[in-house]
Each structure stands twice: as C-alpha cells, then as structure tokens.
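User: Show me a protein chain along with its predicted structure.
Assistant: Here is one chain, sequence first, then structure tokens.
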Amino acid sequence: VGLSSVFPLTCAVQNYAWGKVGLDSEVAKLVVGGDPVAVVADGKPYAELWMGAHPKGDAQIKDNRIAQTTLGQWIAHFPACLGSKVKDTFQGQLPFLFKVLSVKTALSIQAHPNRELAARLHAQFPEHYPDNNHKPEMAIALTRFQGLCGFRPVEEILGFLKSVPEFHALVGNEAAGELLCSMGDAVHTSQVLKKCFTRMMNCEKKVFVDQLNMLVKRVTEEGAAGKDTSSSNGDMLLRLHSQYPGDIGCFSIYFLNHIVLDPGQAMFLGANEPHAYLYGDCIECMACSDNTVRAGLTPKYIDVNTLCEMLNYSPAPASSKIFPCVQDASDPCVSLYDPPVPDFTVMRIQVPASVKQYTVAPVDSASILLVIEGDATATSAAALSDVTLRRGTVLFVSANESVSLHITSQSGMDMFRACCLL
C-alpha cells in the first residue's frame, strides 16, 4: 500500500431540498466541526454528508503530500487497501457508502431493488436506474428519528379502512372485504395486501385528489373542534399534506408502520421494503448504489407498476423493524450493527471519560471513521503524521491498520465506523 494508508477526508455535502437548514442540520454542524473555516449558509439545506468514493460525491483527501486528490482515485491506485477478500469480492471497489442525513421534510416513499431486479431495471430504463447493484441500507438515529417502514399488521390497516372512509374509497369495497376475509392465512393476506396497495396506487388522479382534499378538510375541522384525530392518523396526514399537497403518498401512512428511533437505535431496510424517512438526523450506511423505485411524496419519476410488483407485502409490527446492535465480544467500547448483507457493517465506538488511550482495532477491510463527539490525537504507523480528531473529523483507515488515540476531551469519545466484514 502507498506511503500513507490512514488519512483524513473532506466529504461531499448534498444540499437536497428536504434537508435541515443551516446550523439546525447535524450535517452542517459536523462539516463546521471538521473544518473550522467551512462556511455554512443560513438559508441553505444541508441534507447529506457522503463519506466514501461514490462518483457523485467522491471524498477529497485532506493531505497534500498524497498525490491522488480523491478517495476513489487513491483506492484505484492502491486496491490492496480494501483488504484482499473485499477487493476480490467487490471488484476493487469500496462496497459501501457511509452518510449522515439531516431530514426536515419527508423523503419520497421508496424501495430499493434486489440485485436481479436492479440489473433488469438498469438494462431497460438506464435513465431512471443508473446502476445494476442492490441497495440495502441501515439508518442509525443520532437524534430522535422518524420514518415509515414496512406494511403494518393487517388489523391496523383494517382499522384505518373502517375509520377513514376516504382511504376506503381508494382501496375499494371488494379489496377491503377480501383483506378482512384473508386474516389468518399469511400467503393469502400478502396477495390481497398487494391488491389493496396496487388499487390505491393506480387510482385516477382526480379521484384521489378529491378524496385527499375531503380527508384533509375533515381532519382539520375535527382538530379545530378539539376532537382526537388519531384514528385517522391526523397529525401525520396534515404534516405530509403540507409538505406534498395532493400527493398519493399521503395515503400510504395507512399502510406503512410509523417508526420512531431513539438515538442509537437502528432500522435495516432490505430489498423491496417500502420506506420513507420523515424527520431527524441519522447515520446511514448502504451498498454503493443509487437505485430507487419511488411511490409518492415526491415530484420525481414514479414507477407505479415496478413498485407494486416488487414490494415485500409481509405485514409486521413497527417494533419488529428496529434492528438490534450487539456488543462486540472483544471490546466493550464497540457496538456492532451487522446487517444480513455482506456489503457493510457499522460499529459504534463509545470510549468512556475514564479512558485516555484507546486503540481502534485493525479489521480486514478498509473502513471510514466519523467522530461525533470528543477530541483526540490519532497516531498510526500507516499515517504520515498525527491527525487531530474532533467532532466532524472523517478518517479513512486501510485494511489491517490500527490507529491509537490519545484522548484529550473530558467526556470521552463517540464515533461510528463503517467497514465490510466478510
């Protein structure tokens, strides 16, 4: 591997419209923390920080003694930095993209294809599906984080069909009746759930806009009269409708689970799982892909047929969507978020205030380390010089390299590290 195989990065920021604005954004705070001369514009959204080598946001190497300017270029020159297994399995590419997201308004309801479907969509519609990879992803809350994820238990959907006539009108009597009769037969339920969701998604625009306007008017009036609108999921409806008026996605809240993650809790989104992020800040890690099939809460291209065909129609309670982390057997400071895909694993490293020397252990994979809280000096045999770590510092660590931290902050350290454990 080249001269230096541990070095800091300056990461790409994406200013998507749904992001939190200015220094309300965790992304903006981390950018300023990592680079005190960085300028954050007051009125500008700071939606995503991309830590990786994706061509749409390749990180810059923050060390002018290194000839290559971006992480992607550096990995192309020194693919051994990935670790031999990772290099061979993923054709010399970093297999994951690590991110921070700061969400102010809802992201579109979407699902990501599995590898087989991704290859087919990319071949047929390259303008909408830019690559042939799958895109499993995991979100770990930094602040209280809200999202929609997976189909609700059937009892809950039936409850909304009963108490929200406008929703019932879009699904139709026949499909709603079938759903009630399918209770207790999982295979049949999933087929009928698909029929119900497809009916709603294929509703004529005029019909669903009229029903949505009636629903919003009714919930607004009931709320103004001091009535409880929770049986119509009123608060959520009005919030999404104010963000995306006249959007079919406003009705998806009656099909999908509302998930609230406390800081440190995670959700894993496998292939074909319908989901939308609603509000809050999170760490996200995903396979390196941009493939998204959208279903609503978006002005972008909506591919209704592909979406309705591909979704996983397995109803399950919200609690089942929370992905557990496991304490690392060899290091009490490390919690592992290890999803059921090979492309990535995330570690949270929490070093208590009493510990002043800590070693970031070597793993057989390139990794990216983000500091959320704390200050330290990092030394490594593989680095050209010491690196100062503070809130917002992002460090690239080549495979099988260890990094020693001399911790200077009074309250310990909180860090996240993405890698690929094959």
